């Protein structure tokens, strides 16, 4: 078939193709190009009919096509692909993939080449950016890994509770020789059984609110040694999946120091308490011992001696009873919602018998609505009995003790105000110390008991006093909804 007739047969599909196309002679010259070829390289379309100058403009590309075509022919191949850079008329360099097809005559002899020019520049730009991003990610991951490896804190990465990574500090923490001893085991194998509930609750809370507060665990090292650790957790993407990064600090030594300090404080307090007990009991014992000697040396017994000895023995009994009351674990009592107003009514009714003997009146100012708290009735009775007794003991003459109850900001406020001798700021500061008292016959343990009970109820007690003008004790207890409100 004549070349001209061949061109005519190809012309419709060739000219209207969306991809740049060209017919190229076996000697490496342009025979025909389409519109898309002009658009690809920035040539005006009127050059479609005058393409001889393109041979010089793209001589290097044509040479490469000629050599590649010869390779195809020698290998008896009809098509192949090569990549070549081509200069756009505007000056920018394009990366072109050339799909080369050998067109044969009817007798099977080679006629010319059909070349399709595919612009790979955008894809290569994307690939270049991807490679740069991958390199950056690899560098970042490498830096991140180096950071974790050199961190002095233990770092564990887990997926669904299974350890995926542990840094050298983590290996030292649990006394592992290398990561193979740790990777793949569940965190529950490391966390002590006593903290498994806390571990489960933490995971449950994260599932509900995505919150992961700091946590303290007791862990078991691989050699059996137990340690306390304090740490926090972050959620990251690790190897394409969500993972938890736990950062932990060994606080075992810190805990031991704190326990040692607490023990030292307890021993100091116990020493002070023992010294106070010895001092308080030694005085009545000295009196008893002295009067016993007098009774032995005297031929006649005196009822006065017996009265003094009995009084001193009762004082020893009082000290022992208050110490026993102070040592009782208040937390063992069963707490429940109670209305504090009936408790105050009962206490005041009980104490009015004693107050009447001293010509002291107890007045109660209370609201009509109930004041509900969580507490233990007998303990709270003891609190207000102690406060009323203190008030009566502080009053040398007749007077009034005013008790008032009201609700504050989520609190029940109970004031006990006497008209006694009052206290100085220094005396108020020392309230609660063992055996410090402003009474002539007191032990100071009663207020310690009162403070302890109120503290166990989640409340507080405040003291305001002016010498010779009286004292006001204010008890604050957290309020709770009434049983009717809870049911509603």
Explain briefly what this protein structure is.
The chain has 488 residues and is α+β, with helices and mostly antiparallel strands.
Describe the structure.
The chain has 488 residues and is an alpha+beta fold. The protein has 14 helices and 17 strands. The protein has helices spanning 3-15, 35-41, 52-57, 59-74, 121-150, 168-173, 196-209, 252-297, 303-327, 340-357, 377-394, 425-430, 445-456, 483-487, and strands at residues 20-24, 30-33, 79-87, 93-104, 110-119, 154-159, 162-166, 215-220, 226-238, 241-250, 336-339, 360-365, 372-375, 399-407, 411-417, 460-466, 470-478. A 5-stranded antiparallel β-sheet has the order 2-1-5-4-3, sandwiched between helices. Strand 8 and strand 9 (226-238) form a beta hairpin. The longest helix has 46 residues, at 252-297. It is elongated and about 155 Å long. The N and C termini lie far apart (100 Å). The mean pLDDT is 82.
Derived structural class: alpha+beta
Principal-axes shape call: elongated
Mean pLDDT: 82
> What level of helicity do the residues show?
40-55%
Number of helices: 14
The biggest sheet, with number of strands, parallel, antiparallel or mixed sense and barrel status, is: 5 strands, antiparallel
Number of strands: 17
The gyration radius over C-alpha positions equals 48 Å
Strand percentage lies at 25-35%
Strand order of the largest sheet: 2-1-5-4-3
Poorly predicted ranges: none
How far is it from the N-terminal to the C-terminal residue, by CA? 100 Å
What is this structure's SSE topology?
Blueprint: H1 3-15, E1 20-24, E2 30-33, H2 35-41, H3 52-57, H4 59-74, E3 79-87, E4 93-104, E5 110-119, H5 121-150, E6 154-159, E7 162-166, H6 168-173, H7 196-209, E8 215-220, E9 226-238, E10 241-250, H8 252-297, H9 303-327, E11 336-339, H10 340-357, E12 360-365, E13 372-375, H11 377-394, E14 399-407, E15 411-417, H12 425-430, H13 445-456, E16 460-466, E17 470-478, H14 483-487
Helix pairs in contact: 8-9, 9-13, 10-11, 11-13
